[in-house]
Amino acid sequence: MEMLVEIFGSLGVDKTVFIQLAILLVTFAICTTFIFPRLQDVLELREKKTVKLEGSAHDLYKKVEELKEKLKVEIEQTHQKEHAASSAKKSELLASNANELKALEEKLSKEYDQKRQNVLAQFKTKKEKVLLEVESLSQNLVEKLTK
User: Fold this and answer.
1) Euclidean distance between CA atoms 121 and 115, whole angstroms
2) Which of 12, 74, 87, 97 has a CA that sits 20 to 30 A from residue 81's CA?
3) Assigned domain for 59 exists
């Protein structure tokens, strides 16, 4: 026993070891009663808020993907609808321009025919006039050549 007392003495253990042991046991009892259960609740709540929310995050991601696809389809439908409307308007404008172009073409064609007839008539009168003078001009030429 002396040997044990000597070892404890060299380690610096004295009569206060029992008081320290009692304080340790009381502190442990208080911690297990008041602190550890609340700490356990906090840790479980934290786990529930982080790990358990992973499933809801996947659900939200799926909803986002569904909305994305839905909006993509709606945008495509709107694009097709507006493209069809613009094509119809373009066709309508081209048709009205084609009608205006035909009317203008007919007008120009009539003007051309009238001017052509006038020029042909003038040409014909001048040709007849020249043909009438051909006889007298050929007589003059023959006279001048024979002189």
Assistant:
1) 10
2) 97
3) no
Q: Has residue 95 been placed in a domain?
A: no
Per-residue pLDDT of 28-77, as tens digits, reads 999 999 999 999 999 988 888 777 677 777 888 999 999 999 999 999 99
15-24, long-range: CB < 8 A, 24+ apart: none
Classify the phi-psi angles of 99: left when phi > 0, otherwise alpha if psi is within -120 to 50, otherwise beta. Answer: alpha
Sequence-distant (6+) residues with CB within 8 A of 8 are 14, 17
Number of separate domains in the chain: 1
Q: Residue 34: which domain range?
A: 1-51
